[in-house]
Design goal:
This protein is of the alpha/beta class. 39% of the residues lie in helices and 24% in strands.
Length: 211
């Protein structure tokens, strides 16, 4: 039999090693680490850094994501805009937003505010946004024209609308998407095609002052 003090020391060292290992694993994770395999897959198809560069997200901006879900892109936007910026995470799924709130609490993201919107009204703050962002969600909207028309007043006069939408089956054809956003009061500035191989275009719109 080992002396009692040796047993206690062994237990303590085992606990210390286990705690250190767990801490080391946690350190390897970050706020930008995908929560699951599906997020990781989508981030490979739509690399957040490249997408945010393409749509002009920089420190200090006020951004809203419509259809934010569980926050796959919200956390990316929050880190990019920094403490001097703000991200409004909008969705009609209250359960997804609760998950997102816990996700932000876990990583200490204090520049994110969730908004429970409606099918045709995202309830975004009036005149505060530099950018409205939508990715992998547009084709799910029941009435994208009404939704984005109601969102338009949330943009600053020089604000932009950026939509990352799938091509092909299940997505919205480019001409149809442009026509719908024209009806909602936006004018197409450009289409980013660098994700075409991954079956996605990114459309950047400005407010159409003539409507």
């Amino acid at each position: 039999m080992y002396p009692k003090k040796h047993v206690i020391l062994f237990i303590f060292l085992t606990f210390l090693i286990a705690s250190t290992a767990a801490h080391s694993v946690q350190e390897q994770k970050s706020v930008l680490t995908p929560d699951n395999a599906n997020e990781a897959r989508l981030n490979r198809l739509q690399p957040p850094e490249q997408v945010m560069d393409a749509i002009g997200v920089v420190s200090g901006m006020v951004v809203a994501e419509i259809g934010a879900g569980r926050g796959r892109y919200v956390v990316q936007l929050a880190v990019r805009v920094g403490e001097s910026g703000k991200v409004y995470a909008e969705d009609i799924d209250a359960k997804a937003l609760r998950y997102l709130e816990k996700r932000c609490d876990r990583w200490g993201l204090e520049n994110v505010e969730t908004i429970l919107g409606e099918v045709t009204n995202p309830k975004l703050p009036e005149g505060k946004l530099d950018l409205i962002f939508i990715i992998s969600a547009y084709h799910h909207f029941a009435d994208p024209v009404a939704l984005l028309r109601n969102a338009r007043s949330a943009l600053k006069p020089d604000g932009k609308l950026a939509i990352g939408e799938w091509l092909g089956r299940g997505g919205t054809p480019p001409k149809k998407l442009e026509s719908q956003m024209n009806a909602a009061g936006y004018k197409l500035e450009r289409i980013e095609t660098f994700l075409k191989a991954n079956n996605m275009y990114i459309y950047v719109f400005c407010i159409n002052d003539t409507q």
